[in-house]
Each structure stands twice: as structure tokens, then as C-alpha cells.
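User: My instructor asked us to take a sequence, write out its structure as C-alpha cells, and then describe one feature of it. I'm not sure where to start. Here is the sequence I was given:
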Amino acid sequence: MKTKSLSGQEIDLSDGKLDELKMRLQGEILEPGEDGYDNSRSVWNGMIDRRPAFVIRCLGVADVIACVRFAREHDLLLCIKGGGHNIAGTAIADGAMMLDMSLMHGVWVDPKRKIAHAQVGCLLGDVDRETQVHGLAAVLGFVSRTGITGLTTGGGFGYLTRRWGWTSDNVLGMEIVTADGELIRASDEINEDLFWGLRGGGGNFGIVTGIDYKLYPVGPEIVGGPVAWPASEAARVLELYRTLIKEAPPELTLVVIMRPAPPAPWLPQDMHGKPIIVMIACHSGDPEQGEKAVAPIKSFGKPIGDVLVRRPYVQLQSLLDATQPNGRRYYWKSEYLPEIEPALCEKFIESAAKIPSPHSAAILFQLDGALNQLSNDHSAVGNRDARYVVNLASSWENREDDAVNIEWARAAWTDMKPFSTGGTYINFLTEDEGPERIEAALSSSYERLVEIKAKWDPQNVFRTNRNIKPV
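Assistant: Let's start with the prediction itself. The C-alpha cells for your sequence are:
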């Protein structure tokens, strides 16, 4: 078997070395052509089609340790897949030894201490389902099929961010297998520098095998969902949005989406495929207060669809899943925004009108609140001046349509970039965005992250990521 070294050279593992690894593992090794190999190497973004030399489906931390030590012994290129939902597909590398963590998806909830421990392979939905049994929730994202580890180490945001900050602001500790193949803990009490870097610096410092999340009382019932109008109402709806976000309580998060109407049952059939504007609300506090808070949205103009109602929190968390199916082709461009200016709204409407695919969308997501109250150096994620994020989310079916859809996202981003804080969300960076965009995402944290990388991974063992090279 041929695989790659860290330097990119070819290495031959055909002399029994792989059998040696098998003896150390509880999980299975999958080689090309074997059942399960293609499923393990596939990721959410259909544009990513890479072939690792072999895949290990880890069943526990001992497997992870054995794999890291084996990779070090033989100088192998290593890649790690958690949820596989990263748009750049950084989890997969050609010719690498790949660890598939999807079987490590246990969640343990301590309702008295309001803490959840989640394993590396968990998706957001795994954590939400278990915590909601107790009427509790972690601060996570808003697509339930996203992996927790990439989300969290990249910062993370969702419907609860306005109340409690970035996802990474609400982590109490992490277990991590280092480049030396040792299992350690990082928190505010131990390995503090590593803990600081893990909260925003991504997978640069080791393999996170477990995360302790702080939990908050949320649900089980909240007020949430979308209201839609024809795109001809976009200017008025965006003005409503600008009015509401100025006085929205922390419990209320508002999102605006412009896109062709999907074939959703809550939208009239004669509107399917036609341009619409949608406002999604999530009020995570008292439902009676939530109904009052969203009343101006429900009564505005003449909506073509309205399912902004009381519903289970876990249902809202998976509401957008159908718009993000595995295997479709995706390309995004995004920026953090300090405010929603009228001039930006004009560009937003103009860009949305040019969407070439029935699956693409222009999105504004509200973030302002708790994250802005912490100092910029609280953790590596930084970007404490971000109050909104704009995401130009291009999505389509066929390879031959790549150019036109990528160009739409790039052109729309060019129009939006003048309104940026200068920062961007590292988890939204695409495959073709280079070091300068990584530095834009990490901004003032970057130099300190380089030092932490040099301490914990001086050989850059963990490099198939948004890589921070050690000094």
C-alpha cells in the first residue's frame, strides 16, 4: 500500500506495517474498494472528492492514541473527520491515513451541574436531543447534521449566541490527543494556553476527543420558524429587520434569507422557484414573551407562508437541514458585519436577484450580544466586534455549473466586503481561500496561535486543516 508522508513523499506500507496497526486497534481499517471506505471518505460538500490511502474507524480514545503514534512512527500524513460538514473538506486528504470519528458519538448529561460531555464524532443533533431531555441546551449551530468538534474549535454560532456568546465561549474543557500521542485535558485550570488556542484555532493542536459544554435552560418549547414574502417586498422586510434588531432582547435571534422558494409544503406551490425573502426567528425564552416579540413579523404585510409558531427547540435546530443535503455542490463567501446599513441592504437585494441556482441563498444572521461583552483576547476566536454575519451560500447539483455558481458567490461577496469588520468566520472559508483569509479570520490571535502551535505541534503533524504553521 502506498501512502503519503508529512513532506508529501510516497511511503510503502505493504511489508506488514498495517497488520501491526490492526493489532493495536479495536476499530476497523478500511482500504480502497472495501465496503464502507467510500462512505467514510465522503463529506457533505459534493465538490470534495479525495481518496485517503486507508481509513480507520476509531471506536475510542485508545484507537486515536494508537493511530497518532503509528502516524508519527512512520511519518504519515494524517487527516481527521468528525462530522464532515466543513465546506472546504479539510477532513479528507489524498493519500493520507484518515481517522473517521463518526462512531464516537456518546453524550453524557449532568443536569444538576448543567454540563454535557460529548465525544468527538457527535453531530449537533446528538447533543441537542440528549440535553433537551432535561430542558437544557448547549450553544451550538443551526444545522443538526454539523459535527460539534469542527464547529466548536472554529468558534461556532447559532440561535443561542446572542444570549451566551460563541460556542467556544461556553466550553468548560476539552480532552485532546497531542502530536506525541498523549491524552491530556485543556481548560482554564490546566494547559491554559492550549485551551485558549483550541477555542478558535481549529484542529491545529491535536485531536479533540471530547468536549465539556456548559448548558442553559432552553425549551423544550420555544417560539421559532420562518415567515416568507415575495422578493418584491425585500426592501420593506429588510427595513423591518433593521428596526427589530435594534431593540431585540437577547432571547430573540433574527435571520434573513433571500433565495428562490424551495418546494417546501408551507409555501404555495405556485411560488416554488420564484424569488422570496424569509425571516427566521428564534425566541429561546418564555414562549408567551416570544409570541409577543415575533408579533410584528407575523403581522407585517401579506406573507405567502408563515410557520413561526411554538415548537420544540430540537425541531427548530433541524429546520434548515433539508436545504443542506449531503452530496450537493457548495461554495460560500462570508464576512462579519458591524451593522446592517441601508447601502448593504441594497447590495444584498441586488445580489440575491442574480442567484443562478434554485438552491442558493444570501443570508444575514444576527450575532450581537454576549460575544461583544468579552475582551478580544478572551480566546482565539476573537472577532468581538462582529454583530452580524453575511453568507453568500451558493449551492447547485451539477459539475458543469460550477463556474457560474462560484462566480455568483464571489461577485456578491465583492459587493458586501466593503461593509465588513475585516474579519470572517473560519468555518465558512472555502478550499481556495489561502493564508491571508485565515489571518483575516483569526486577526489579532494569529501570532499567539503560531507560538502555541510551535509548542504543541512543532512538526506540524496536524496540517490538514486551516493550517497555522509553527515558527
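For the description part of your assignment, you could build on this observation: The CA atoms of residues 138 and 215 lie 5 Å apart. Try explaining in your own words what that tells you about the chain.
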